[in-house]
Amino acid sequence: MGSTEDLDHPQIILQYSNGFLVSKVMFTACELGVFDLLLESGKPLPSDTIAARLGTSTTGMERLLDACVGLKLLAVELTQGGALYRNTEVSNTYLTKSSPKSQYHIMMYYSNTVYLCWHYLADAVREGRNQYERAFGISSTDPFGAMYSSEEEMVKFMAGQNSVWSICGRDVLAAFDLSSFTQIYDLGG
Question: What UniProt keywords are attached to this protein's entry (predicted)?
């Protein structure tokens, strides 16, 4: 940012200030099941059909779908009967639950846990400690307490970790010479 033009239109500042909106659109579409429905349908669907099948408002769903089109998570085909929405290849690969490379579970962990904790970032900086107590009502001294508070929560957290491993695990393993080992144990989960 060295020019006057950069100061007249601070694109990077606007991009940063709106960054969380992009994440939340993607998280919401995953949570509501938009990508899974479109994959299962096998054909493009209109927004009112998607809304009806997912139990949402038609107006809200149409806005969400259009935002996903803008993010290139969905594609839209305009017909005489209206707009028909379908997944992009990236959504089919990473945002549907049934894909071997699905990132759905880590998206839900980020949406329901990380996103909420970051709401309290200023407090974390002031106090120098995590904000699990404010966010979830559990002791800040036990940050894993929320993840392991029930078998359901533990399974969700582990599914999130496994989803990340499905796309970067090979790279992690390739970064180390493990040829002298016959077994590997992941003690961290």
Answer: Methyltransferase, S-adenosyl-L-methionine, Transferase
Q: 37-69 in b/e burial notation, b at 16+ Cβ within 10 A?
A: bbbeeeebbbbebbbeeeebeeeebbebbbbbe
Q: What is the pTM of this model?
A: 0.79
Domains and CATH numbers, the chain: 11-95 (1.10.10.10), 103-168 (no CATH)
DSSP secondary structure of 76-127: EEEETTEEEEEE-HHHHHHTSTTSTT--HHHHHHIIIIIHHHHTTHHHHHHH
Q: Side-chain half-sphere of 9: how many Cα atoms within 13 Å?
A: 2
